[in-house]
Amino acid sequence: MDLNKPCISLVIGGTRSGKSKFGETLVSSYGKKILYVATSAVLDPEMSERVRRHKQDRPSDWITLETYRDFDQNLPPYGDKVEGIFVDCITLMITRLMMEKKDINWDDITQEELIKAEEDIHNEIDKLLISLKKIGKPSVLITNEVGCGIVPEHRMARDFRDIAGRINQKIAKDVMDVYWVVAGIPVKIKSSDSSTDSGKTIDVYGGV
């Protein structure tokens, strides 16, 4: 099996940049039956309403899977049922993986604890990427660019920023295409096409 053949795209941008809208349009071009992998947790009524609206806006043919870990077990059952996979988002996945470590005091974390925690997160990312490649369906991953702001005041926020930045680099290096979305305008910054169109803006409806 050629694990590098399946097309996996990373869409990265800031909050409310239009990255998810573009990603949904991109994955829709692969077919009607899409697996929507939601990594968020519903923690309050506002988030619950947001999730409800997202579900309502999705095409009826899309299947929703709510998970943020153990993708080697959770994704394969859907492989033969869908034409594409959409993961929204990597950043919330990282957040939940950090927050589940109840034994860590993130404000007073040791270097050894931090290294181990990040290794665990990288392992879950590896499970995701390897599973997507084995399934072999075109996939789109959404993530936030968290490194363009000021240095966070709190230790946990700084560690989160650093971990998310390294994870984004890891994924961008591994996947075939990377899109950067700013103010609703997608720009392809890494292309699998040998006649690359990197650096060109991409219309959200598919034109270059």
UniProtKB/TrEMBL annotation:
GTP binds at residues 13-20, 38-40, 55-58, 66, 88. Gene3D superfamilies: P-loop containing nucleotide triphosphate hydrolases. One of its GO terms (biological process) is cobalamin biosynthetic process. GO terms for molecular function: adenosylcobinamide kinase activity; ATP binding; cobinamide phosphate guanylyltransferase activity; GTP binding. Keywords: ATP-binding, Cobalamin biosynthesis, GTP-binding, Kinase, Nucleotide-binding, Nucleotidyltransferase, Transferase. Its EC number is 2.7.1.156, 2.7.7.62. Pathway: Cofactor biosynthesis; adenosylcobalamin biosynthesis; adenosylcobalamin from cob(II)yrinate a,c-diamide: step 6/7; Cofactor biosynthesis; adenosylcobalamin biosynthesis; adenosylcobalamin from cob(II)yrinate a,c-diamide: step 5/7. The active site is at residue 54. This is Adenosylcobinamide kinase.
